[in-house]
Each structure stands twice: as structure tokens, then as C-alpha cells.
Write a structure and sequence with these properties.
Number of domains: 3
Shape: elongated
Strand order of the largest sheet: 1-2
Helix content: over 70%
Strand content: under 5%
């Protein structure tokens, strides 16, 4: 029976110390009972090889000990699909930002394409690894705090959207939340992006109008984040969604009107560029930004009209559905 005691000792080393003795005693009885049953079937005592085979069938010591631990995973099977979804959204967002920065360095910076490509690849790999590590740590902490289980337990099927409703997919909804949050944090100055704003001969600085509209833009970004969160988590709150969509669209149009009236949105500061070339660049930049504001305004007008139309057709009861 020395082999059984060695087996139980190996299990005990991986058990919680508080109740290890009780568990080992229970396992000793279970193994003894299994060996006795086998001996009754054969009508003779088991050989050492047969006892070893019976113990092997009982399971590896680490596997057996793991059955008596409360938490056997970093991220549990019920939470894992949410972890994968969030990780993909975060990684795709980080990759898109890094690629955009790399393209900007090639178009507007003074770096060679190969140098910018190598720098982008190096920065992308490290950024993706750090982002994935942060997401994993957050979900591991939430797993141990019991938050995911509570959230899943309070899930209500009544919150599912109607079959005929045109709702954004989970990827689109989550991406909208991620981008809204990223813009809000960036605008609030909580992090910065290494976006090039010129070259060795010039730099581009934002016009004072953006500092004047800092708080209205911050409030609008927060309101849009709230709308995207409701759309993602409570798609049946149609009246609330209609109101927030209409208000943020109208607020966006008001901000665009203020920006358009400013007439100047960025300044080309020469650091070596000839004066006439700097003036031509300023004219082209003003024209491009003016067209961008007008096109954005047209898109938001259509979005506002659609939101108001949807809001006029909704019943108040949907707000509490």
C-alpha cells in the first residue's frame, strides 16, 4: 500500500491546507473501495502492477487535486466569450490606430517608408501585447470578484431587441463604444497619440476655436458614449435611444456650425518652408477642412432627420421595456 500513500501524498501537496486531511481521507476510502471491488471480481489480491493501473485510472494527482479547488482557471468558461469579444475589439482598435499613425508618418513626416514600416511593426507588436495583457488582467480580476457571474445571472431575455428591428451587430456596437471612449479620454487629455503634425519644414497647429469649444465637445463626446452604451446593452430602450441620438446629432450640428463660422481651423507654421509654399499649403488645408466640415454636417443632418423620424414613431412604453 506504499504506492497508495505516495499517491495520496502527491495529491495532498496540491490541496488547500485547510481541508487537505479530510479530502485525503475521503480519497483513501474511495481508492480502497475500488481496489476491494476489483479483488472481489478477480477472487484474489491485486498485484502491484494492477494496483498501479487502478491508481492511474483514478487520475493524475494534479488533476484530482484540482477538482477540490474553487477556482481552476484564470478566466472561466462562461466569461471567456466576453473576454474574447472585448480582446478582439481592443486589439483591432489598437491596430487601426497604430497603422493610421504609421501612414501619417509616411505622408506627413520626414521618415522613410521602410523606416516607418519597421517602427510601426515594432510598436504594433508591443502595443498589442500590452493591450492583451491589460484586458486579461482586468477580466481575471473581475472573474475573482464575481462580477461576471452576477452580471450573467441578472441577464434578462426581455432586453433582447425585436426581430424586425435593425440593430447594430455586437462587433459594431462594441466598436462604437470603444471608439467613443477612446476619443473622450484623448480629448480630456488622459492619453496622447503620436500623430505627426508636419515635417522638418513645417508643423500644423490647431486653431484657438478648438480650445474655445473644449467643454461643449467634451460634453457631446460623453453624451455620445452614453448613447452607444445604451444601444449596446439596452437595445429595447428605443425611446431613450431616439432621444439621445437626436440630441447628440443636433448638438453635433451646432458645434459644426460654430466651427464653420470660425473660418480657420488649423495653422501652418513654417520651420524652413518658403513663405509662398506655406501660404499655398495653408490655403489647401483650409479648403480641405472646410469641405470635411460641410460633408460631416450633411451626414449628421440626415442622421438627425432619421433619428427624429424614428422618435416620432416610437411609443413611450419602449423606454421601460
Amino acid at each position: 500500500m506504499d504506492l497508495i500513500e505516495r499517491y495520496l501524498s502527491a495529491i495532498k501537496r496540491n490541496l488547500p491546507a485547510r481541508n487537505a486531511d479530510d479530502i485525503v481521507a475521503e480519497l483513501r476510502d474511495a481508492i480502497a473501495s475500488r481496489i476491494e471491488d476489483r479483488e472481489d471480481e478477480l477472487g484474489r489480491p491485486l498485484t502491484s502492477e494492477e494496483i498501479a493501473a487502478a491508481i492511474k485510472d483514478f487520475g493524475h494527482p494534479l488533476v484530482v487535486a484540482a477538482r477540490f479547488r474553487k477556482q481552476q482557471w484564470l478566466i472561466g468558461p462562461e466569461v471567456f466569450p466576453f473576454y474574447i469579444s472585448v480582446a478582439r475589439i481592443v486589439l483591432l482598435t489598437v491596430a487601426a490606430i497604430m497603422v493610421a499613425v504609421g501612414v501619417g508618418q509616411v505622408l506627413f513626416g520626414d521618415r522613410e517608408p521602410l523606416q516607418a514600416l519597421l517602427q510601426t511593426i515594432g510598436g504594433l507588436s508591443s502595443s498589442l501585447l500590452i493591450s492583451l495583457s491589460i484586458v486579461t488582467i482586468v477580466f481575471a480580476v473581475l472573474e475573482r470578484a464575481g462580477f461576471p457571474a452576477e452580471h450573467i445571472g441578472t441577464w434578462n431575455p426581455e432586453q433582447l431587441p425585436d426581430v424586425g428591428d435593425a440593430q447594430p451587430g455586437p462587433w459594431k456596437a462594441a466598436a462604437e463604444v470603444a471608439l467613443s471612449l477612446a476619443f473622450l479620454l484623448w480629448w480630456a487629455g488622459l492619453f496622447s497619440l503620436p500623430i505627426p503634425a508636419g515635417s522638418a519644414e513645417f508643423r500644423i497647429e490647431p486653431a484657438p476655436v478648438f480650445a474655445e469649444l473644449y467643454w461643449p465637445i467634451l460634453i457631446l463626446a460623453a453624451a455620445r458614449l452614453l448613447h452607444n452604451l445604451i444601444q449596446w446593452l439596452r437595445p429595447r430602450w428605443k425611446l431613450v435611444l431616439g432621444v439621445t441620438n437626436a440630441l447628440t446629432a443636433i448638438g453635433g450640428l451646432a458645434l459644426l456650425a460654430m466651427l464653420y463660422r470660425a473660418g480657420h481651423w488649423a495653422t501652418v507654421v513654417s520651420t524652413g518652408l518658403p513663405a509662398h509654399e506655406a501660404a499655398e499649403l495653408q490655403t489647401s488645408l483650409d479648403l480641405a477642412l472646410k469641405i470635411a466640415i460641410v460633408v460631416t454636417g450633411a451626414i449628421w443632418i440626415l442622421a438627425s432627420l432619421g433619428a427624429l423620424w424614428s422618435l416620432s414613431r416610437e411609443r413611450p412604453r419602449h423606454a421601460t421595456a
